[in-house]
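Entry for the shared binder. Reason: the reviewer on the internal report wants the predicted structure included alongside the sequence.
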Amino acid sequence: MAVHNLLGQQGEAIARTYLEDKGYEILDENWCFGKAEIDLIVYRDKRIIFVEVKTRSSTGFGQPEDFVTESKQILLQKAAEEYLYLMNFKGEIRFDIIAILFDKKGEYTLKHIEDAFW
């Protein structure tokens, strides 16, 4: 497996643990619809939250959250609509980004951006 894929998996595991520790209930992971994949779907305070996790090892090309482009947001929205339809969920939703940045020592910082887009 490519190094960037391993880094992404590591980031998603860190994000999952972080969210669980904050009291979020994990509903789904790596949920796919068409060309879109939602990294984490969680539930808290009667709201479904769709979480995009971006993990990077440097900021040479920008911050991790900068990689959630407008086209990526549109794909995520379409996938979220399908998920909501399948689950027959009529309540509030939110889109979050969890940005994880590793340094050369293997330590990381995590930034949770709530209500990042719509």
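Summary line for the report: Strands lie at 25-33, 36-44, 47-56, 92-102, 108-113.
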